[in-house]
Amino acid sequence: MRFARLTARFMQLARKLRTQVPDMVEEAQDSSGRCDWAAAALTLADIERTVASNGGLAGIFVVDNEIKSSVEPRRRRALLAAESMVSNGMQKNSTSDVGSGLIVLANLGALGNVVAKKVRQEASSWATYVSSASLSDTWVDIASLVDQLLARGLQIRTLEKALARRRDVVTRFDVSVDNSAGFLDSVVAQLGDRALAFWWRAAVAVLSARILAAPTRATVTTGFPRLVRAFFPKLEPLVLAHLGGVTTVRELPSNGATQELHEEEEAEAEEPGVLILWDGLLAPLATEYCARAATRMNGSVKRCFGQQILAAPVKKNVIAAVRRISAETQLASADSRLSAAVLRCASDSVDEFMQEINARVARVSATVLPPVFNDGPNELLSVYAGLVNAVQTLCTGLRESDVCIQQLPDPYALVEPLFAAAQIGISEAIDQDDLQTVESAMQWIQSQVIAPIELDLYRRTQMFVKISMQKYVRTTLLIYPMTEEAKLHVVANVARFEFACSQLVSLADTGDAYASLRLLRPLLFMDSKQLCKNIENGDMLKCLPKADLLSFVIYRIVSEVVELADKEMLLPHTVLGWTQVQLREYMLDQVQQEPLLLDNVLDAQRWSLDQLAQKLQEISPEHYDLASCVLKHLAK
After folding, report:
1. What is the mean pLDDT of residues 210-228?
2. I want to staple 156 with a disulfide (CB 3.0 to 4.6 A). Which of 105, 199, 225, 556 is the partner?
3. What is the structure's pLDDT at 174?
4. What are the φ/ψ torsions at residue 601 (nearest 5 degrees)?
5. pLDDT the model gives residue 462
6. Whole-number percent of the chain with pLDDT over 70
7. Over 70: is that where the pLDDT of 425 sits?
């Protein structure tokens, strides 16, 4: 009875199958105008389960005859129809058509084998196409190959997207296929990777072997940026999120089950084609191309420098080097990785340029620094200016060409040693009251630095003049003893110093430094009452730092009151155990960094004034009033 019921069930399913897939296709069209292959696949799955259940129906004549004459032919037709759906859907890039065919294949238990076979056939077809392609017109033929590669890749991507789509479990899906395995799992089990990644690796390997063969390799290496542009603008549609996400399965777990491969239908994921194409074809060419680009850029840099060591680069050669670097980086801009690699080579070329510049600057500096201001024009200083101008030409050209090198050299850093050396020379001349050298130094800066160097040095010159003014004012205020003869000498020198500074910058641009310089002459000839009045009004503090006024008042009092005993011991620098020059330099450094001096200097000045006030009360009431006024308003 059990076999009779199973046989009756089998015959019922066989009649249902003949209805879904009749012998003549013309008579077997459903209302949609095609066979109901999805329903037929479910019926075939039921037949498979019925025949195999309870010991099986094999050996029963009517069952075997029906399977041979009806079921198996219809199964073959269903497989062919499903394969046709998949192929047609791939041709039209229709995910829904491909998905319909995949469902039929899954219910027939043939999904993994059929899809894997299809992918391998596509890879074989591509290999045949590439091997038969002509590369007589290299770039035109490569463009044709690229078009075909991307068109076929898009078809495989359509298949992959359909495989990756999340689906509800079909009611009878467990008849022939394990429910725990999805569509992607079945294909990965056959191919060892996702279909798209498998196909791209096979396709790129074939294309790489064809393009990298001689003599094509030499052409594509020389024109490598053109090859990159042939690929990547056309690859952009493949990496758009709305086409679905596909990633590469790098390795399978040891238990044989794949990792979780299903993703949401619209999930964005990495397109393997771009990476595989780069690693398999473009990376070797990129390495070779970058090496050649580096050689070309380094060659243009070396041509900037002649055989003569103490000589500056010729400007036209520097401009040629800029053009070469700019051209190489622009050619490589088609791909971010290639662009980054060429930019690194460009940065190395700029570093090589600067190494040679710095070496020549060091040789010239050893001869021209410290400067001799009273000599005539120095030919080596012209070389120094030429080296600075070469760096400026390089940096300006690279910026205007939009060459994105992160750390371009700073030509202003090369000028700094000249200003620093001149500043030291002027400071020494001011200490020695040598206005002739000061004037020569100012002229030297103008003729040997500012004029020949093609940089905007006004702000640096302005700072140079400002520091020189501060140094001169502070030195003048600390003159001791401040006799009438010394005052007249200072007045004459101030005019010369002011004129020398005016040859470099507009004096108004130096701010408080110039205001304090102009205040020197009236300050020297104010009597004690006028000086006290200006201090009380705060007018002096607008131009001169508190510490400078304190020192000036102390040295003036000590100079004018001859009756003071042990007056040398009351001077601030003596209290501190310094020389007068040490105090002046210390105050200059401190005032440049912050408005107030350190407490120990102010304490010494307060102590000096306090001691002077005690001694002056009976000796010189006028000076006593001045000291008291200063203690009241400045020594707080």
Report:
1. 86
2. 199
3. 42
4. -70, -45
5. 95
6. 82
7. yes
User: CB neighbours (10 Å) of residue 270?
Assistant: 12
Q: How far apart are CA 76 and CA 220, in angstroms?
A: 48
Mean pLDDT across the chain: 80
Closest to 99 measured CA to CA, from 107, 271, 175: 107
For residue 252, the surrounding DSSP H or E stretch is none
Is residue 159 exposed (0-12), middle (13-18) or buried (19+ Cβ within 10 Å)? Answer: buried
Question: E strands, 416-477, where?
Answer: none
Pair 323, 351: CB distance under 8 Å: no
- Looking up tokens 């000028």 gives 415
User: In sequence order, which residues have a C-beta less than 8 Å from that of residue 287 and are 6 or more positions away?
Assistant: none
Q: Would you state the structure tokens that stand for residue 89, as one six-digit string?
A: 């859907």
Region 476-480: what's the mean pLDDT?
A: 82
Q: Taking the alpha carbons of 578, 580, 582, 587 in that order, is the dihedral positive or negative? A: positive
Neighbours of 162 (CB within 10 A): 26
What pLDDT is attached to residue 187?
A: 85
At 266 the pLDDT is 34
As a whole number of angstroms, the distance between CA 270 and CA 137 comes to 34
Could you say which DSSP state residue 314 is in?
A: P
Q: Could you tell me if 98 and 90 are in contact, meaning their C-beta atoms sit under 8 angstroms apart?
A: yes
How distant, in Å, are the alpha carbons of 46, 297, 409, 410 from that of 346? 69, 7, 13, 17
Assigned token pair, 515: 């205001």
Q: How far apart are CA 185 and CA 258, in angstroms?
A: 6
11: tokens are: 């015959």
What is the rounded distance in angstroms from the CA atom of residue 169 to the CA atom of residue 177?
11
Q: What is the CA 183 to chain-centroid distance, rounded?
A: 43
